[in-house]
Amino acid sequence: MFDFWSINNIAFQLVGYPMSYVELIGTILNLWSVWLISKQKMLTWPVGIVGSILFLVLFYQIRLYADMLEQIYYVIVNIYGWWRWLTPLQDTGKILTTRYSSQQQIIFYVAVTIAGSFAMGALMSRIHLLFPALFAEAASFPYLDSFTTIMSFTAMWLMAQKKIESWYYWIVVNIIGIGLYYAKGVKFISLLYAVFLLMAINGLCSWIKMAKTNKP
Questions:
Q1: Containing domain of residue 160, as a range?
Q2: What angle do CA 209, 213, 216 make, to 5 degrees?
Q3: How far is CA 201 from the centre of its chain?
Q4: From the CA atom positions of the chain, what is the Rg in Å?
Q5: Alpha-carbon distance 167 to 165, whole Å?
Q6: Tell me: the pLDDT tens digits for 184-198?
């Protein structure tokens, strides 16, 4: 019986690497979503929701539990970002424009990222003991995985607010992700993160240019 959601159902072999249907389609949708958001296209949000659901299933099966929980967050923030980009600001009545956060806000985000990474890492390193029915095996790279997860949480929130520094976060996440997913044997996702890295650099340049255009 065909099971679309299983990583054991292979769409094709790519240079000896077995590409599952869930990984293939999730990859395509997430790439498309990043390109769309770099261009500030509203379609990025529904595409991102579906891509996140597919990656949630994938990460659960390869025991990257922090990344799995990250996808749940992505679904929620994609819904919020969809609403936020469509809704005029109450104080000005205008739609969001690209801009940087204040220095105080940036310091706050960095502090939250560091504290959250240690807290989540401690949880992920013991989650198989706390919830053995759900997580039969110990998490892989719990602290490193948690660090990229918390950074991604912050970046996604900032992106929903059209804050330019979100792209700096994504650049760091993608650099770490390239090595992490290669080590876990999902080499296609490692390659995907290399593409994400290039797209994040392009998105950063694009948003900086848009911010200059939006200045009065």
A1: 10-214
A2: 145
A3: 15
A4: 18
A5: 5
A6: 777 777 888 899 999
163, β-bridge pairs? 99
The answer to whether 134 and 56 are in contact (CB under 8 A) is no
Residue 195 lies in a domain: yes
Residue 82 domain-assigned? yes
pLDDT in tens, 51-75: 999 999 988 888 777 678 889 989 9
* 162 found inside a domain: yes
pTM, full prediction: 0.81
Tell me how far apart the alpha carbons of residues 187 and 193 are, in angstroms, rounded to a whole number. Answer: 10
* Residue whose C-alpha is closest to residue 147's, from 70, 59, 63: 70
C-alpha–C-alpha distance, residues 138 and 89, integer Å? 45
Q: Is 185 left (phi over 0), alpha (psi -120 to 50) or beta?
A: left
Residue 4 inside a domain? The answer is no
**How many domains, in total, are found in the chain?**
1
**Quick check: helix, strand or coil at residue 215?**
coil
Supply the angle between the helices 187-214 and 166-183 in degrees, to the nearest 10: 170
Amino acid letter for position 103 = Q
Sign of CA dihedral 187, 192, 195, 200: negative
User: Beta strands 17-20 and 10-14: pairing type?
Assistant: antiparallel
Q: Are 56 and 48 in contact (CB under 8 A)?
A: no
Helix (H, G, I), strand (E, B) or coil at 17: strand
Query: Structure tokens of 122?
Result: 């401690």
